[in-house]
Amino acid sequence: MPKELIINKTLNETRVALLENGDILDYLIDRMIDTKEDNRPVVGNIYKGRVLRVLPGMQSAFIDIGHDKAAFLYVDDAYLPSLEEQREMMKNRMLIEETKLKNSGEVIPDEMSTLAESVMSFRRDVHISDFLKEGQEILVQVAKEPISTKGPRVTRHITLAGRYIVFMPFIEHTGVSRRIEQDEERLRLKEVLDSIRPEGKGIIARTVAEGQSHKVLKSDYNMLVKIWKEINKKSQKVKSPNLVYKDLTFIQRVLRDITDEDVDQIVVDSKTDYKIVEKFVTKYLSSMKGKLQHYTDDMPIFEHYGIDIEIERAISNKIYLKSGGSINVDQTEALVSIDVNTGKFVGKKTLEDTILKTNLEAVKEIAYQLRLRNCGGIIIIDFIDMMKDEHKEAVYHSLLEALKRDRAKTNVLPISALGLVEMTRKRTRETLTRVMCHTCPYCEGTGQVKSILTVCYDLIRELTKKIRKSLGNKVYIYAHPEVSARLCSEDLDIIEKLEEEYSKLLVIRAENSYHIEQYEIHTQEY
Crossing angle for the helix pair 183-196 and 214-237, nearest 10 degrees? Predict the structure, then answer.
């Protein structure tokens, strides 16, 4: 299946889409706040920070890194174990895994193979206040960018990513990406990395390291070590808070992190970005040299590749399936809920077959939407109820298979008795809707407003309360035009009854600028 990387530049916005056979595998967007240097704490940046506050009750601390929001540091990310502690913890972990293997007879996955899982679980008796004090200066790296009202999350477990390997100066470990599946190649890479890695340091082979020689991996490692020495040197000279290492530019990070040998074409519509990509490809991605193309057609590049239509679907709550069914996606602060419906799809055979077909079709779209929207945290999927266990198993395994294309780590539980799937997905950046959309100023994000009838009765109750206490003879009512229209038509008898009962003149005025729930009541004497 053809794989294409599409890069679009519009003023200060850069958009990147990784396509496979027309489907979006990954979508990234970067916007400069202004034309000055962008100092946002992006993932990978390293800062010399100052501890603002230590919270023993939460086993965490807040760190000033020069951003408008303090960075959050959790105890597991703050504690730097000694080399002896690391080796002891690794030994204990291996014993636990061996015990699991003997007791269950199952194959235990190589949990140390990915970057996120390479940092060992530290001792539970460690208290953050024992090794971190307010005012202390420490070196931290951004692990998660600011999301919503939260500041960035940082770690002291510094990692430097190269093209083929990841260097960890504080963790002794040799690892291989889980995406490299052949045992022989995994063993070869581990042997190569062990010969390169000095005592007390860590190296992880990235997916693109597959098939690379000792010389190439050694060269990548040497470059990262050189960068680390420069970071250390700069951190000793500057005062906190201060940026001591800025990761690659947005486009360079994209080329480094999501471009692999399977990409058949890189298409760029900006002449400036084309030169940047060309320079990076020449230096680091020699195999991609003949695959770079400058897009010059009049039709916008994202429109030409059908990406804009997919993005519009991704910010909608309802997505229609080809069969006529649909899925509803609702994102909240706590979780993401997804509901599957048959819609117009009536099937051709039995009801069970119709439900199964809809659920299986929904699985592919759900995996696609989670990836495209960058949904994270707790995700609940409400599939259409299935009676047969084999159908539930088919849908569950189909979901697991569909999620294999996702670069983010996921954890999926089997379908529950209520027909729900509970899963988690790791997210380190804002969701697509948060990047592209704002909360509706009219409904304030609730998605609902009071009906005209409800507002009218709210107004009448408030009006009754005020005219009982008022000494004035005239009362002015200001409301939304639709509310005013109802008060002067269907509810006119109520208005007339209040005028007669309290001997007041009620004057109703329509205000075009008012929110439908807004109204004001003022009293005045003749």
Answer: 50
Give the model confidence (pLDDT) of 428-438 as tens digits: 677 888 888 88
Residue 144 and residue 153 in contact, taking contact as beta carbons nearer than 8 Å: yes
List the beta bridge partners of residue 330: 337
Name residue 508's amino acid. Answer: I
Tokens 């035009």 sit on residue: 481
Taking the C-alpha atoms of residue 260 and residue 256, their distance in angstroms, rounded to an integer, is 8
Q: What is the pTM of this model?
A: 0.73
| CA-CA-CA-CA dihedral for 67, 27, 4, 38, to nearest 10 | -20
Nearest to 170 by CA among 181, 155, 183, 184: 155
| Cβ(45)–Cβ(29) below 8 Å | no
Q: Among candidates 70, 57, 53, 236, which has minimal Cα distance to 132?
A: 53
Query: From start to end of 440-482, where are the E strands?
Result: 474-479
Beta-carbon-side half-sphere exposure of residue 171 (alpha carbons within 13 Å): 28
User: In three state form, how does the secondary structure of 165-221 look?
Assistant: EEEECCCCEEEECCCCCCHHHHHHHHHHHHHHCCCCCEEEECHHHCCCCHHHHHHHH
Cβ-proximal residues to 191 (8 Å cutoff; 6+ apart), any chain:
none
Q: Which 8-state DSSP code applies to residue 114? A: S
Per-residue pLDDT of 221-254, as tens digits, reads 998 999 999 999 999 889 888 999 988 888 888 8
Residue 165: pLDDT above 70?
A: yes
Q: Is 522 helix (H, G, I), strand (E, B) or coil?
A: strand
Enumerate the β-bridge partners of residue 57. Answer: none
What SS3 string covers 245-273? ECCCCHHHHHHHHCCCCCCCEEEECCHHH
